[in-house]
Design goal:
Blueprint lengths: L3 H14 L4 H13 L1 H22 L4 H9 L6
Helix pairs in contact: 1-2, 1-3, 2-3
Length: 76
């Protein structure tokens, strides 16, 4: 049998995306209910997704955009 934490790790992104079957969702939730380590990982992944969504909607300051543009290397 697979290590339950390794299996949970494999299912983490599909779980967060809500694309697992009902049975797989229940299996993941049962493991998260009893495993503190995987629960912490889940909370981290969930927080990371919130941060990325927020960062993707914020405008980059013009000064930073200029600095990044200055670092570009022309492709030949």
């Amino acid at each position: 049998m697979k290590d339950p934490c390794a299996h949970c790790e494999e299912m983490m992104q599909p779980y967060l995306d809500r694309i697992l079957t009902d049975e797989e969702m229940s299996e993941a939730e049962a493991h998260l209910d009893e495993c503190e380590q995987c629960r912490r990982r889940y909370r981290f992944e969930e927080s990371l997704r919130v941060y990325v969504r927020k960062a993707a909607t914020e405008q980059m300051p013009a000064e930073l955009r200029q600095k990044l543009s200055a670092l570009r290397i022309p492709l030949e």
